[in-house]
């Protein structure tokens, strides 16, 4: 879709002061000031409709903890200007990924529900377009997860980060982990910057970075390799790193380039 204005985020939470700094500082704040994004923090307690601003109640069937009411969530969402995605942050959701961040960055308005206590009444699920988890662990609330989603998605909006090419080279954008980066000092505690980066040969640098990304991914996240669109040159590099031909075949990788045959010398006439 083509977005005519800023990408809007509506972050719905019981603790707005936890999220306001994320929406107002650093590159997110600068992007908002430039009209590239708009990040609004919505206090769920404003929709409680009782003098004590109570938003939760005890669970039916008994059990520990409190549950956030569905009618409170419904009123809060109804106050928004037609979000085209309503995201519920929950450990039971679809794992958040770079591919999802890229998809969400094309939307016009994202509403994000941050739970607390024992979470939302299960009927809230009927009000959302997707449920998202940032990992297989449990936190005390969804605010930190919302901050992760905000940063991951907002930085993909054109103009938010200075170098448009940089996010295309990030970990996971290419399917691989990122290659190692270096800056001054050239030598630190007997560790030196790789010589290939000092020579200005951009083709060799690009080849080195690709090989390093492959090596890092193989060592740390080999599960990523089957879906990365490996090239014949990648296959050759992985074979040199100890990967077997059977593994490459299982990953759907193409065969490495055929070795060049030496040119036959012509006999002197």
From TrEMBL:
Sequence positions that bind S-adenosyl-L-methionine: 115, 134-139
Region Disordered, annotated ranges: 248-269
GO CC entries: cytosol
Coiled-coil annotated spans: none
Pfam families: tRNA_m1G_MT (PF01746)
GO biological process: tRNA N1-guanine methylation
Gene3D superfamilies linked to this entry: 3.40.1280.10, tRNA(m1g37)methyltransferase, domain 2
Primary localisation category: cytoplasm
Enzyme nomenclature, EC number: 2.1.1.228
Keywords from the UniProt entry: Cytoplasm, Methyltransferase, S-adenosyl-L-methionine, Transferase, tRNA processing
GO molecular function, a single term: tRNA (guanine(37)-N1)-methyltransferase activity
Catalysed reactions, as listed in the record: guanosine(37) in tRNA + S-adenosyl-L-methionine = N(1)-methylguanosine(37) in tRNA + S-adenosyl-L-homocysteine + H(+)
Residue span, tRNA methyltransferase TRMD/TRM10-type domain: 7-225
Biased amino acid composition, Basic residues: 260-269
Function: Specifically methylates guanosine-37 in various tRNAs.
Family: Belongs to the RNA methyltransferase TrmD family.
Subunit structure, interactors included: Homodimer.
Protein name: tRNA (guanine-N(1)-)-methyltransferase
Species name: Deinococcus maricopensis (strain DSM 21211 / LMG 22137 / NRRL B-23946 / LB-34)
